[in-house]
Amino acid sequence: MASKQILSPLPGTFYRRPAPDQPPFKSEGDTVEVGDVVGLVEVMKSFHEVKADAAGTLGAFLIDDEDAVMAGQAIADLEG
Amino acid sequence: MAIEVEAPGLATTVQDLGRPGYYHLGIPLSGAMDRLALRAANRLVGNDDGAAALEVVFLGPELVFRADAMVAVTGAELPPRVDGVVQPTWTSFAVKAGQTLAFDYLKAGARAYVAVAGGIDVPVVLGSRSTYALGALGGHEGRALRAGDVLPVGRGRPAAAGREIPAALRRGPGGSPVSLRVLPGLYWHRLTEAAGRQFLADTWKVAPEADRIGYRFRGGRPLEFMPHEQPFGAGSDPSNIVDACYPYGSIQVPGGTEPIVLHRDAVSGGGYMMVGTVISADMDLIGQLQPHTPVRFVAVDMAGALAARHDRQAILDKMQSHLA
Lengths: 80, 324
Fold this sequence. Notes:
- The complex is a heterodimer of chains A (80) and B (324).
- By secondary structure, chain A is mainly beta.
- Chain A contains no helices and eight strands.
- A four-stranded antiparallel β-sheet of chain A has the order 1-8-6-3, with no helix packed on it.
- In chain A, a hairpin with a 2-residue loop joins strand 4 (37-43) and strand 5 (46-51).
- Chain A starts with a strand and ends with a strand.
- The mean pLDDT of chain A is 93.
- Chain B has two domains: 2-169, Sandwich (Jelly Rolls); 178-314, Cyclophilin-like (Cyclophilin), CATH 2.40.100.
- Chain B contains four helices and 20 strands.
- Chain B has helices spanning 35-45, 193-201, 280-286, 302-323; strands spanning 2-7, 13-15, 53-57, 62-65, 69-77, 80-82, 85-86, 92-95, 100-103, 108-116, 150-152, 178-184, 204-206, 214-218, 240-245, 250-252, 260-262, 269-272, 274-278, 294-299.
- In chain B, helix 1 packs parallel to helix 4 (302-323).
- Chain B starts with a strand and ends with a helix.
- The interface between A and B is medium-sized, with 15 and 17 residues.
């Protein structure tokens, strides 16, 4: 059971990697601390970090890399 | 009276009805991208239509009020909270000295207008308080707000709390795809007949880089151009022309692939042919489009464009009689 979710603060395009040739910020099962970056949202020619506002273990990602995302939409489950 | 910016939001700017008269010098109109929503917010709090307000895009700021104020939030559905208590949009509400105005996640639309009785009293530059960030002109220090900024508010005769714009007069982009009405323009003949048809038939999606300067769309098929010998001074691509003036609302299609509709912070000229111009009545709707929103361009003639302008004015007139 996911106890929490990480939400996107902005609408735009979601990216799991800092750059196409780099590994994802976080993967399922990773430990997440408050303020850890889990992805980027691109909008208006700039990239904005999506940060965890609670600590825990990262559950399933709920949207795919490079998908459209809406403000307030859940990006990933956060366990515990 | 002043407002302290605790958190700025994404790109919150001071905007009024704009800075006409300098476009021929390369200084764009600027001002609110959704002018109807700005006017509504100002009227709700008792301001003149042209008072300066905050244009909030996608992500709300956190604002601490140093004195009692009357506030209204219109445009995008970005629910305001005063010290945590949700307030209705399109409705005037009171904020007391020391209270914080913050916002929930964006629910619909793209740009909310936060009007405060008395207006945001930044200096008037070339006849307007609007921010033109690209030119570092107007607004608060010529830029989007930052944490720690203090915004002066003018003296107003605040209207009462609870004044409301009825739902039927809250104009926003409806339907999916959203229809944007276009008057085909000077260079329409440069497209093949098939390309003209497909430009109007295809569904385009707002690209994430769309901003106050221009709204870019992608997802339609590339446009084909009529065979044409490029004149002296024009670039070699068939979408190039000898440099010309760009009307506000004009649609350029660089390389024939991704249409860009110039908006309030438009560049005033350049070397791309324009297939047409979005009618003035529908420019407000563009300001409320989120990234990835599907859109269709619908051709109208001049009579249709003027009728739409009349309809939009009728909404403003109804608003006025409702609030009187």
